[in-house]
Amino acid sequence: MRLAILGASGHGKVVADAATLSDWSEVVFFDDAWPNLTQNGPWRVAGGSRELMTQATQFDGVIVAIGNNRVRNARQRELKDAGLNVVSVIHPSAVISPHASIGVGAVIFAGAVINACARVGAGSIVNTGAVVEHDCSIGEYSHLSPNSVLAGGVSAGRMVWVGAGASIKQLVVLGDEVSVGMGSVVLNDVPAGQTVVGVPARLLNSQN
Ligand SMILES: CC(C)(COP(=O)(O)OP(=O)(O)OC[C@H]1O[C@@H](n2cnc3c(N)ncnc32)[C@H](O)[C@@H]1OP(=O)(O)O)[C@@H](O)C(=O)NCCC(=O)NCCS
Question: Which positions does UniProt annotate for acetyl-CoA binding (predicted)?
Answer without folding.
Answer: 143
